[in-house]
Design a protein that fits this description.
Layout: H1 2-21, H2 29-67, H3 74-102, H4 105-133, H5 140-165, H6 173-176, H7 180-192, H8 196-214
């Protein structure tokens, strides 16, 4: 369950990053400012998601230990974990690279989500190999989940704590729902449309030019 949820969380965090960089037309100063404001909100949102993922992974680890949940379909686990290491590992490398090139904390945190998936996949492959030789070592899998869950929870909510400590009103509705982007779109549209006064002046000048030509 923890592994499946991590896939879903990684998908959600990537959607947040796509929203942060979404730019349907050539950006002007107003749109660039709006995109920069999205950066902060996207970074906070992904941090919250990472913290919640950590809590869930930690909880699943506790439940597995209490219920002595032993893995049985080892061949399936081998296949899934091996493929996932390649997929999540590649995503992690690409996201960290572009986060550095674009100076984007939100994309970096999205890379953290993929890194968690890589770690879960690697631990799944390793523990499955150990359990295949020593079935009594099934407890290794939930222990790894506990460690990853604790790490993700601390990282995610420490970022949120620091943001709140710096006075950012992330609990206010206005912080998440603003009209800045609409205003920037309106400003862009107004810049593209010629003013009425300018059009009238241009028409008068054309009429004067016509009269001079007739004379």
């Amino acid at each position: 369950m923890a592994y499946g949820l991590e896939n879903f969380v990684d998908f959600i965090s990537s959607l947040v990053v796509l929203w942060r960089f979404y730019c349907p037309h050539e950006p002007d100063a107003a749109l660039l400012a709006a995109l920069q404001k999205r950066e902060e909100r996207a970074s906070v949102a992904i941090s919250i998601v990472i913290g919640m993922l950590g809590i869930f992974v930690f909880t699943v680890g506790i439940v597995d230990i209490l219920n002595r949940d032993e893995d049985r379909d080892l061949s399936l686990l081998f296949t899934i974990s091996f493929v996932s290491i390649i997929v999540f590992g590649s995503l992690t490398i690409m996201k960290f690279k572009y986060a550095q090139d674009l100076d984007s904390p939100s994309l970096y945190k999205d890379g953290i989500c993929s890194l968690i998936g890589t770690c879960l996949s690697a631990s799944l492959l390793l523990t499955t190999a150990i359990i295949d030789k020593a079935p009594g070592a099934w407890v290794l899998d939930p222990i790894v989940s506990l460690l990853i869950g604790i790490s993700a929870t601390i990282y995610g909510f420490m970022v949120v704590f620091n943001v709140v400590k710096n006075g950012v009103p992330i609990f206010a509705r206005e912080y998440w729902i603003t009209n800045d982007e609409k205003e920037s779109d309106t400003a862009t549209s107004n810049q593209e449309l010629p003013s009425v006064e300018g059009s009238e002046q241009k028409t008068e000048n054309e009429e004067n030019d016509t009269e001079h030509e007739m004379i």
